[in-house]
Amino acid sequence: MQYTGLAFQLAGILLISIFAGKKLDLYFGFSKPYITALLSMMALVGFMYKLYLDLIKSSK
Predict the structure, then answer these.
(1) What is the pLDDT of residue 39?
(2) How many domains does the chain have?
(3) H-type helices in the chain, by residue range?
């Protein structure tokens, strides 16, 4: 039961990072979604790191 909300957290984090990335790409005038890709990858890596720390903490 501890990890039931993880899918919603991941989806929320990715949606926010994609939305912010698209806005920043438009603001800076990039023709390709560089910032969107960067923010999405950073969000995914950060989420996986948080998940790793939670799993390590719960296994002790």
Answers:
(1) 97
(2) 1
(3) 6-28, 34-59
